[in-house]
Amino acid sequence: MRQAQVLYKNEAAGLLIQLDNGSFSFKYNEAWLANNSKPAISLTLPKRKKAYVAPSLFPFFFNMLPEGNNKESICQSLRIDEDDYFGLLLNTAMVDTIGAVTIVKIEEE
Predict the structure, then answer these.
(1) CB 53: neighbour CB atoms within 10 A?
(2) How far is CA 67 from CA 6, 26, 32, 79, in A?
(3) Residue 60, CA distances (Å) to 11, 38, 75 in order
(4) For the segment 15-28, what is each residue's pLDDT rounded down to a tens digit?
(5) Which residue from 6, 68, 80, 90 lies 20 to 30 Å from 49 (Cα-Cα)?
(6) pLDDT digits (tens, 9 = 90+) for 17-76
(7) 71-74 long-range CB contacts below 8 Å, 24 or more apart?
(8) Which residues in 86-102 are b (16+ Cβ under 10 Å) and which e?
(9) Of 53-67, 71-85, 95-109, which gets the smallest average pLDDT?
(10) Any residues with CB less than 8 A from the CB of 103 and at least 6 apart, and which?
(11) Distance of alpha carbon 87 from alpha carbon 81, whole angstroms
(12) What is the dihedral of CA 66, 59, 80, 4, to 10 degrees?
């Protein structure tokens, strides 16, 4: 299982998890949900208490990934399989993303 904090303008908004079976879960933090001034991170992931679950990486997060030659170069230099979308997200979406959302890997203990 791999996990990441999802930040919105550098504030913790939720938790993105890749489960051992390869599926994904995204859940908003309770404090984020309780604050009506905090927006949803995406129109496709409106604020709700129940976790979102999907068999593959959610399109919102997938669209944060590099493409083409940029993706190939990053995967080669970081030794990431080009099909490991979550690994690529964890290594590229922590700074300088388009929009307000960044991803911070939670290290395994």
Answers:
(1) 13
(2) 21, 23, 31, 16
(3) 18, 18, 20
(4) 999 999 999 999 99
(5) 90
(6) 999 999 999 999 999 999 999 999 999 999 999 999 999 999 999 999 888 898 998 889
(7) none
(8) bbbbbbbbeeeeeeebb
(9) 95-109
(10) 4, 5, 6, 7, 16, 61, 64, 89, 90, 93, 94, 97
(11) 8
(12) 110
Can you tell me which residue has the tokens 């979406």? Answer: 93
**Do the Cβ atoms of 71 and 88 come closer than 8 Å?**
yes
Kindly state the tokens that stand for 96.
Answer: 């300088």
CB-based burial of residue 29 (10 Å sphere; 0-12 exposed, 13-18 middle, 19+ buried)? Answer: middle
Rounded CA gap, 20 and 43, in Å? 27
Question: For residue 20, how far is the Cα from the chain centroid?
Answer: 16
